[in-house]
Amino acid sequence: MKLRDFLIATAATVAFGTTATAEILRFSSFEPPVAHVTKNILTPWAEKVNAASEGTLDIQMFPGGTLGRNPAQQLKLVEDGVADIAWVIPGYTPGRFDQGTIGELPFLVPNGTVGSEAMWSVYEQGLLTGDYEKFKLIGVMTSFPNAVASTAEVRTPADMKGLNFHAPGPTMLGAINALGAVPVGGITGPGLAEAISRGLISGTFTQYGAIETFRVGETVSYYLDMPLGATPMLIVMNQAKFDSLPDKAKAAIDQYSGKVFSEDFGKSFDQYVGEARERVLAANDITEIEPDEALTQQWKDALSVSTTEWIAGHENGQALYDTFVAAIEKASAAN
Protein backbone atom coordinates (compact mmCIF):
# COMPACT_ATOMS: atom_id res chain seq x y z
CA MET A 1 0.00 0.00 0.00
CA LYS A 2 1.28 3.45 -0.89
CA LEU A 3 1.91 5.90 1.94
CA ARG A 4 -0.86 8.17 0.68
CA ASP A 5 -3.42 5.34 0.65
CA PHE A 6 -2.34 4.20 4.10
CA LEU A 7 -2.81 7.70 5.55
CA ILE A 8 -6.25 8.02 3.96
CA ALA A 9 -7.33 4.62 5.39
CA THR A 10 -6.00 5.53 8.82
CA ALA A 11 -7.82 8.86 8.78
CA ALA A 12 -11.08 7.16 7.82
CA THR A 13 -10.74 4.71 10.67
CA VAL A 14 -10.21 7.51 13.17
CA ALA A 15 -13.03 9.61 11.76
CA PHE A 16 -15.75 6.99 11.51
CA GLY A 17 -14.67 4.24 13.92
CA THR A 18 -14.69 0.55 13.17
CA THR A 19 -15.34 -2.65 15.05
CA ALA A 20 -11.57 -3.20 14.91
CA THR A 21 -11.06 -0.40 17.42
CA ALA A 22 -14.19 -1.05 19.48
CA GLU A 23 -13.84 -2.47 22.99
CA ILE A 24 -15.70 -5.78 23.14
CA LEU A 25 -17.81 -6.27 26.29
CA ARG A 26 -19.30 -9.69 27.07
CA PHE A 27 -22.86 -9.53 28.47
CA SER A 28 -23.97 -12.78 30.12
CA SER A 29 -27.59 -13.89 30.53
CA PHE A 30 -28.68 -17.25 31.93
CA GLU A 31 -31.95 -16.97 29.98
CA PRO A 32 -32.45 -18.40 26.49
CA PRO A 33 -31.99 -15.78 23.75
CA VAL A 34 -35.75 -15.73 23.00
CA ALA A 35 -36.81 -15.13 26.63
CA HIS A 36 -38.34 -11.75 27.28
CA VAL A 37 -35.73 -10.04 29.43
CA THR A 38 -32.82 -11.13 27.23
CA LYS A 39 -34.56 -10.53 23.90
CA ASN A 40 -36.58 -7.39 24.64
CA ILE A 41 -34.63 -5.57 27.35
CA LEU A 42 -30.98 -6.59 27.53
CA THR A 43 -30.25 -7.00 23.82
CA PRO A 44 -31.87 -3.67 22.79
CA TRP A 45 -29.97 -1.97 25.62
CA ALA A 46 -26.68 -3.29 24.27
CA GLU A 47 -27.59 -2.13 20.76
CA LYS A 48 -28.46 1.39 21.95
CA VAL A 49 -25.24 1.70 23.93
CA ASN A 50 -23.19 0.45 21.01
CA ALA A 51 -24.77 3.03 18.72
CA ALA A 52 -24.23 5.86 21.21
CA SER A 53 -20.59 4.92 21.79
CA GLU A 54 -19.51 6.20 18.37
CA GLY A 55 -17.60 3.03 17.55
CA THR A 56 -15.84 2.69 20.91
CA LEU A 57 -17.97 -0.23 22.16
CA ASP A 58 -19.15 -3.57 20.88
CA ILE A 59 -21.34 -5.12 23.59
CA GLN A 60 -21.99 -8.73 22.64
CA MET A 61 -24.76 -10.83 24.21
CA PHE A 62 -23.99 -14.32 25.51
CA PRO A 63 -27.45 -15.74 26.35
CA GLY A 64 -28.51 -19.20 27.41
CA GLY A 65 -25.64 -19.62 29.84
CA THR A 66 -23.01 -19.50 27.10
CA LEU A 67 -20.43 -18.16 29.56
CA GLY A 68 -21.86 -20.08 32.52
CA ARG A 69 -25.18 -21.91 32.76
CA ASN A 70 -25.82 -21.64 36.49
CA PRO A 71 -27.86 -18.49 37.32
CA ALA A 72 -26.20 -18.50 40.74
CA GLN A 73 -22.77 -18.08 39.14
CA GLN A 74 -23.50 -14.95 37.10
CA LEU A 75 -22.06 -12.61 39.71
CA LYS A 76 -18.84 -14.62 39.91
CA LEU A 77 -18.51 -14.46 36.12
CA VAL A 78 -18.30 -10.68 36.41
CA GLU A 79 -15.99 -10.76 39.40
CA ASP A 80 -13.62 -13.15 37.62
CA GLY A 81 -13.69 -11.20 34.35
CA VAL A 82 -15.27 -14.06 32.38
CA ALA A 83 -18.17 -11.70 31.66
CA ASP A 84 -18.01 -7.91 31.75
CA ILE A 85 -21.73 -7.43 32.40
CA ALA A 86 -24.36 -9.83 33.72
CA TRP A 87 -27.97 -10.07 34.82
CA VAL A 88 -27.86 -11.13 38.47
CA ILE A 89 -30.53 -12.43 40.86
CA PRO A 90 -29.09 -11.57 44.32
CA GLY A 91 -31.31 -14.17 45.99
CA TYR A 92 -29.22 -16.90 44.36
CA THR A 93 -26.15 -15.67 46.27
CA PRO A 94 -27.40 -15.19 49.86
CA GLY A 95 -25.45 -12.66 51.89
CA ARG A 96 -24.58 -10.55 48.85
CA PHE A 97 -26.55 -7.33 48.23
CA ASP A 98 -28.46 -8.14 51.41
CA GLN A 99 -30.04 -4.70 51.88
CA GLY A 100 -31.89 -5.11 48.59
CA THR A 101 -33.86 -8.01 50.04
CA ILE A 102 -36.22 -5.35 51.32
CA GLY A 103 -37.93 -5.74 47.95
CA GLU A 104 -38.87 -9.30 48.95
CA LEU A 105 -41.07 -8.19 51.85
CA PRO A 106 -44.72 -9.22 51.37
CA PHE A 107 -47.37 -6.66 50.44
CA LEU A 108 -44.81 -3.94 49.72
CA VAL A 109 -43.96 -3.91 45.99
CA PRO A 110 -47.17 -3.62 43.90
CA ASN A 111 -45.55 -4.15 40.50
CA GLY A 112 -42.18 -4.14 38.76
CA THR A 113 -42.50 -0.55 37.53
CA VAL A 114 -42.97 0.91 41.00
CA GLY A 115 -40.58 -1.54 42.65
CA SER A 116 -37.77 -0.79 40.20
CA GLU A 117 -38.18 2.98 40.46
CA ALA A 118 -38.21 2.75 44.25
CA MET A 119 -35.20 0.43 44.39
CA TRP A 120 -33.11 2.74 42.20
CA SER A 121 -34.17 5.71 44.34
CA VAL A 122 -32.96 3.99 47.50
CA TYR A 123 -29.67 3.10 45.80
CA GLU A 124 -29.25 6.66 44.53
CA GLN A 125 -29.75 7.96 48.06
CA GLY A 126 -26.77 5.89 49.18
CA LEU A 127 -28.67 3.43 51.36
CA LEU A 128 -27.55 0.32 49.47
CA THR A 129 -23.93 -0.22 50.38
CA GLY A 130 -21.43 -3.08 50.71
CA ASP A 131 -21.53 -5.23 47.57
CA TYR A 132 -23.41 -2.52 45.72
CA GLU A 133 -20.30 -0.36 45.91
CA LYS A 134 -18.05 -2.99 44.30
CA PHE A 135 -19.64 -2.88 40.85
CA LYS A 136 -20.78 -0.50 38.18
CA LEU A 137 -24.57 -0.73 38.50
CA ILE A 138 -26.38 -0.61 35.18
CA GLY A 139 -29.73 -1.18 36.85
CA VAL A 140 -31.26 -1.98 40.24
CA MET A 141 -34.73 -3.45 39.80
CA THR A 142 -37.46 -5.73 41.10
CA SER A 143 -39.70 -8.19 39.37
CA PHE A 144 -43.48 -8.15 39.40
CA PRO A 145 -44.46 -9.47 42.85
CA ASN A 146 -44.46 -13.22 43.41
CA ALA A 147 -47.62 -15.14 44.27
CA VAL A 148 -48.24 -18.74 45.34
CA ALA A 149 -48.00 -21.35 42.57
CA SER A 150 -48.65 -24.83 43.90
CA THR A 151 -49.64 -28.41 43.18
CA ALA A 152 -52.06 -28.51 46.12
CA GLU A 153 -54.77 -25.90 46.64
CA VAL A 154 -53.49 -23.09 48.86
CA ARG A 155 -56.03 -20.47 49.90
CA THR A 156 -55.35 -19.64 53.52
CA PRO A 157 -52.07 -19.33 55.41
CA ALA A 158 -52.98 -22.54 57.24
CA ASP A 159 -52.91 -24.42 53.94
CA MET A 160 -49.16 -23.85 53.75
CA LYS A 161 -48.39 -25.71 56.95
CA GLY A 162 -45.97 -28.59 56.46
CA LEU A 163 -45.48 -28.09 52.71
CA ASN A 164 -42.01 -27.96 51.18
CA PHE A 165 -41.99 -24.60 49.45
CA HIS A 166 -39.49 -22.64 47.38
CA ALA A 167 -38.85 -18.92 46.98
CA PRO A 168 -36.16 -17.07 45.00
CA GLY A 169 -34.75 -15.09 47.91
CA PRO A 170 -33.92 -15.31 51.63
CA THR A 171 -36.60 -12.91 52.89
CA MET A 172 -39.33 -14.77 51.03
CA LEU A 173 -37.95 -18.04 52.39
CA GLY A 174 -38.32 -16.52 55.85
CA ALA A 175 -41.94 -15.73 55.04
CA ILE A 176 -42.50 -19.35 54.05
CA ASN A 177 -41.07 -20.42 57.40
CA ALA A 178 -43.40 -17.99 59.19
CA LEU A 179 -46.35 -19.72 57.53
CA GLY A 180 -45.35 -23.07 59.01
CA ALA A 181 -44.12 -24.45 55.70
CA VAL A 182 -40.64 -25.84 55.06
CA PRO A 183 -38.52 -23.29 53.15
CA VAL A 184 -36.45 -24.81 50.34
CA GLY A 185 -33.71 -22.71 48.79
CA GLY A 186 -30.92 -23.52 46.38
CA ILE A 187 -33.18 -24.13 43.38
CA THR A 188 -32.76 -21.70 40.50
CA GLY A 189 -35.41 -20.95 37.89
CA PRO A 190 -34.33 -23.59 35.35
CA GLY A 191 -34.65 -26.31 38.00
CA LEU A 192 -38.10 -25.41 39.33
CA ALA A 193 -40.28 -27.51 37.05
CA GLU A 194 -38.23 -30.64 37.70
CA ALA A 195 -38.22 -30.06 41.48
CA ILE A 196 -42.02 -29.71 41.48
CA SER A 197 -42.64 -32.69 39.16
CA ARG A 198 -40.40 -34.89 41.31
CA GLY A 199 -42.30 -33.87 44.44
CA LEU A 200 -39.29 -32.22 46.08
CA ILE A 201 -41.38 -29.09 46.59
CA SER A 202 -45.13 -28.48 46.56
CA GLY A 203 -44.80 -25.09 44.94
CA THR A 204 -43.01 -21.79 44.81
CA PHE A 205 -43.43 -18.07 45.24
CA THR A 206 -43.24 -16.87 41.63
CA GLN A 207 -44.96 -14.85 38.89
CA TYR A 208 -46.28 -15.67 35.44
CA GLY A 209 -43.16 -14.53 33.61
CA ALA A 210 -41.03 -17.13 35.38
CA ILE A 211 -43.81 -19.71 35.07
CA GLU A 212 -43.71 -19.31 31.30
CA THR A 213 -39.93 -19.03 30.90
CA PHE A 214 -39.18 -22.09 33.03
CA ARG A 215 -42.28 -24.12 32.03
CA VAL A 216 -43.61 -24.29 35.57
CA GLY A 217 -47.18 -24.10 34.26
CA GLU A 218 -46.97 -27.75 33.29
CA THR A 219 -46.36 -28.79 36.90
CA VAL A 220 -48.66 -26.64 39.08
CA SER A 221 -52.45 -26.58 39.42
CA TYR A 222 -53.15 -23.47 41.51
CA TYR A 223 -52.08 -19.85 41.57
CA LEU A 224 -53.04 -17.68 44.55
CA ASP A 225 -52.73 -14.13 43.23
CA MET A 226 -51.26 -12.21 46.15
CA PRO A 227 -48.17 -9.90 46.29
CA LEU A 228 -45.94 -11.92 48.62
CA GLY A 229 -42.67 -10.20 47.75
CA ALA A 230 -40.85 -9.25 44.56
CA THR A 231 -37.52 -10.61 43.34
CA PRO A 232 -34.69 -8.04 43.49
CA MET A 233 -32.56 -8.01 40.34
CA LEU A 234 -29.40 -6.27 39.16
CA ILE A 235 -27.45 -5.61 36.01
CA VAL A 236 -23.84 -5.40 37.17
CA MET A 237 -20.64 -4.50 35.34
CA ASN A 238 -17.08 -5.14 36.38
CA GLN A 239 -15.99 -1.78 37.83
CA ALA A 240 -12.37 -2.06 36.73
CA LYS A 241 -13.50 -2.79 33.19
CA PHE A 242 -15.74 0.25 33.17
CA ASP A 243 -12.98 2.45 34.57
CA SER A 244 -10.64 1.32 31.77
CA LEU A 245 -12.99 2.43 28.98
CA PRO A 246 -12.59 5.64 26.97
CA ASP A 247 -14.81 8.57 27.91
CA LYS A 248 -17.16 8.13 24.95
CA ALA A 249 -17.80 4.53 25.92
CA LYS A 250 -18.45 5.44 29.56
CA ALA A 251 -20.82 8.21 28.50
CA ALA A 252 -22.77 5.82 26.26
CA ILE A 253 -23.21 3.31 29.09
CA ASP A 254 -24.25 6.02 31.54
CA GLN A 255 -26.75 7.48 29.07
CA TYR A 256 -28.83 4.30 29.11
CA SER A 257 -28.14 3.09 32.66
CA GLY A 258 -29.24 3.86 36.18
CA LYS A 259 -32.66 5.42 36.62
CA VAL A 260 -33.66 5.18 32.97
CA PHE A 261 -32.70 1.51 32.68
CA SER A 262 -34.37 0.54 35.97
CA GLU A 263 -37.62 2.27 35.07
CA ASP A 264 -37.71 0.88 31.52
CA PHE A 265 -36.97 -2.61 32.86
CA GLY A 266 -39.86 -2.46 35.34
CA LYS A 267 -42.39 -1.29 32.75
CA SER A 268 -41.35 -3.91 30.21
CA PHE A 269 -41.36 -6.65 32.85
CA ASP A 270 -44.90 -5.78 33.98
CA GLN A 271 -46.21 -5.78 30.43
CA TYR A 272 -44.60 -9.15 29.81
CA VAL A 273 -46.06 -10.70 32.97
CA GLY A 274 -49.54 -9.62 31.92
CA GLU A 275 -49.10 -11.18 28.49
CA ALA A 276 -47.48 -14.32 29.91
CA ARG A 277 -50.41 -14.77 32.29
CA GLU A 278 -52.84 -15.06 29.39
CA ARG A 279 -50.64 -17.56 27.58
CA VAL A 280 -49.97 -19.69 30.68
CA LEU A 281 -53.63 -19.91 31.68
CA ALA A 282 -54.66 -20.73 28.11
CA ALA A 283 -52.08 -23.50 27.76
CA ASN A 284 -52.32 -25.13 31.19
CA ASP A 285 -54.97 -26.37 33.62
CA ILE A 286 -54.36 -23.85 36.41
CA THR A 287 -56.98 -22.54 38.81
CA GLU A 288 -56.30 -18.88 39.58
CA ILE A 289 -57.48 -17.79 43.01
CA GLU A 290 -58.33 -14.11 43.56
CA PRO A 291 -58.49 -13.41 47.33
CA ASP A 292 -61.05 -11.05 48.83
CA GLU A 293 -60.20 -8.44 51.47
CA ALA A 294 -60.79 -10.79 54.38
CA LEU A 295 -58.51 -13.47 52.98
CA THR A 296 -55.87 -10.89 52.10
CA GLN A 297 -55.92 -9.65 55.68
CA GLN A 298 -55.35 -13.19 56.94
CA TRP A 299 -52.14 -13.36 54.90
CA LYS A 300 -51.04 -9.90 55.98
CA ASP A 301 -51.50 -10.85 59.63
CA ALA A 302 -49.68 -14.15 59.19
CA LEU A 303 -46.72 -12.50 57.44
CA SER A 304 -46.40 -9.29 59.44
CA VAL A 305 -43.54 -10.90 61.36
CA SER A 306 -41.48 -10.92 58.16
CA THR A 307 -41.28 -7.13 58.11
CA THR A 308 -40.59 -6.89 61.84
CA GLU A 309 -37.76 -9.42 61.62
CA TRP A 310 -36.27 -7.82 58.51
CA ILE A 311 -36.08 -4.40 60.14
CA ALA A 312 -34.59 -5.83 63.33
CA GLY A 313 -32.07 -7.92 61.41
CA HIS A 314 -30.52 -5.10 59.38
CA GLU A 315 -28.36 -2.19 60.43
CA ASN A 316 -30.40 0.98 59.84
CA GLY A 317 -33.26 -1.36 58.95
CA GLN A 318 -35.98 1.04 60.02
CA ALA A 319 -34.48 3.97 58.09
CA LEU A 320 -34.06 1.84 54.97
CA TYR A 321 -37.60 0.50 55.29
CA ASP A 322 -39.10 3.96 55.76
CA THR A 323 -37.14 5.31 52.79
CA PHE A 324 -38.20 2.43 50.57
CA VAL A 325 -41.86 2.78 51.57
CA ALA A 326 -41.72 6.51 50.78
CA ALA A 327 -40.13 5.73 47.42
CA ILE A 328 -42.83 3.14 46.71
CA GLU A 329 -45.55 5.70 47.48
CA LYS A 330 -43.90 8.34 45.28
CA ALA A 331 -43.46 5.94 42.36
CA SER A 332 -47.04 4.66 42.75
CA ALA A 333 -48.40 8.20 42.57
CA ALA A 334 -46.38 8.88 39.40
CA ASN A 335 -47.59 5.72 37.68
UniProtKB/TrEMBL annotation:
Annotated keywords: Periplasm, Signal
Gene3D superfamilies: Bacterial extracellular solute-binding protein, family 7
InterPro entries in UniProt: DctP_fam (IPR018389), TRAP_DctP_sf (IPR038404)
Pfam families: DctP (PF03480)
Localization in the cell: Periplasm
Top-level taxon of the source organism: Bacteria
PANTHER family cross-referenced by the UniProt entry: BLL6794 PROTEIN, PTHR33376
Protein name, as recorded: TRAP transporter substrate-binding protein
Naturally occurring in which organism (per UniProt): Sulfitobacter porphyrae
